[in-house]
Amino acid sequence: MLMPVTHRTLLLNASLEPLCVVSVHRAVTLVMSGKASILETDGRELHSERTSLPLPLVLCLTRYVHVPMRKAVAPTRRTVLQRDNHRCAYCGGGADTVDHVLPRSRGGRHEWTNVVAACSRCNHRKADRLLHEIGWELPFVPRAPRGLAALMAGSHVDEPTWSAYLVA
Ligand SMILES: [Zn+2]
């Protein structure tokens, strides 16, 4: 079967809660084995010698699976900017860098609770100083993203048909 390799499918639990993002290969395997059914397609079809299948955008499992914990998403430039909506924590402007609140040069660790999105101007101005040394404050307490935020931060795609299923 010919498959668009970059295509990704949103997989929902039988309860319609989002579970994860899977490759099209995995999506087709789930559908062919009867483990999932297709909720949304984009109109394109996958063809093999014996069968054809709508290209799945959203799948739902036919049986509910219990998921104890989501895989943790690591703080990277992309995931931190996504968590903070690309807003600079210090001036509220557009952010394109990640700032370590407690600078790494002063023992700050690279973890969710010590990173915020920042514009390059604020990042440069702050440099390796502490917030109280320059009279700045954080508008929120940085935390690791949870639930749907973690799911979206961990996926590289922003598929419009998914949004209806990702409402928290
Ligand atoms: Zn800024």
Automatic annotation (TrEMBL):
SUPFAM superfamilies: FdhE-like. InterPro entries: FdhE-like_sf, HNH_5, HNH_nuc, NA-targeting_endonuclease. Coiled coil: none annotated. The keyword Transferase does not apply. CDD domains: HNHc. SMART domains: HNHc. Keywords: Endonuclease, Hydrolase, Nuclease. The keyword GTP-binding does not apply. It holds the Pfam family HNH_5. Residues 75-124 form the HNH nuclease domain. One of its GO terms (molecular function) is endonuclease activity. This is 5-methylcytosine-specific restriction endonuclease McrA. It comes from Cellulomonas cellasea.
